[in-house]
Amino acid sequence: MRIPLIPQEIMRGADKFTESLFCVRKLDDLVPASHPLRSIRAMVNETLAKMDRLFAGMYEADVKGSKRGNETHQSKIDPDARLYRKGKTGSELRYMGHTLSDNRHGLVVNARLTCADGHAEREAAKVMINDARQAADDEDVEITLGADKGYDAKECIEACQEMKVAPHVAQNTSGRGSAVADAIARSVGHAISQQKRKLIEQGFGWVKTVGRMRQVMVHGLEKVDQMFVLNMAAYHLVRMRSLGQQPAKAAGKAQLKSRLGTLSKADMLAVEDAIKIHLALLR
């Protein structure tokens, strides 16, 4: 069966006047013949023709699938920041903050900031442990270090032993041998240190939320380090106040008072308010 086709002109009428509705003009028609843009355009076209191979070489590089790294990329705004990936997150420009806290009460005794790389944590730990050893009144006093399995490296464990520090570090046995001796890993002190080391995370949580260190508003290692240390000092005072409000046991009351010092509750609140004002000014 055939269906007769109706010409388009019959259905809607012939477009006799359509052309009169449009004006087709070239750019050259709008520029006068004596205009200086014509000579400039000729020079630009000639220059672009000579640079055609250069542009082709610049655009032929295919970066799809290539990885970013500190060897190939650097921030122009903050050159000290480094691309670093934490856990399963993507790589971002970061710094690394490190703290050393008291295993008994979670008081921050040392804080420092470094550029982000795979060795910064262990290098900073060795510096802070050495500071703690130098600050000890008795050179033979027992010092223990509780840390996660990221610090289970031969050079870090040997450095602890040279400074007479017991490395209560979690063993990393994933595909390799641990540098932490089994005798230390099975000790009661090691188990206590592993339980107490989680107190250090409270300081980082506080400075990221209350201290606004999750995304810093300053650039440069020195300035960010000042912000980090100041925030940790503020958390230290907050932690002291919290410990002072807790009912201390009779056996540990004298030791707790010695750690809190002679500051009264009102004094600690005043210092805390002053630091909060300082943080607000820095923002």
Helix amount: 40-55%
Please state how the strands of the largest beta sheet are arranged side by side.
Answer: 1-2-3
Named CATH architecture: 2-Layer Sandwich
Overall average residue pLDDT: 81
**Envelope shape:** elongated
Fourth-tier CATH superfamily name: Ribonuclease H-like superfamily/Ribonuclease H
Protein model, in words:
The protein has 283 residues and is mainly alpha-helical. It has one domain (82-282): Ribonuclease H-like superfamily/Ribonuclease H (Nucleotidyltransferase, domain 5). It has helices at 8-12, 27-30, 36-50, 52-59, 120-135, 154-162, 182-185, 188-196, 200-209, 221-245, 253-260, 265-282, and strands at 82-84, 92-101, 108-115, 143-147, 165-169. The strands form two sheets. A three-stranded antiparallel sheet has the order 1-2-3, with helices on both faces. Strand 2 and strand 3 (108-115) form a beta hairpin. It starts with 7 loop residues before the first helix and ends with a helix.
Write the layout of secondary structure elements.
Elements: H1 8-12, H2 27-30, H3 36-50, H4 52-59, E1 82-84, E2 92-101, E3 108-115, H5 120-135, E4 143-147, H6 154-162, E5 165-169, H7 182-185, H8 188-196, H9 200-209, H10 221-245, H11 253-260, H12 265-282
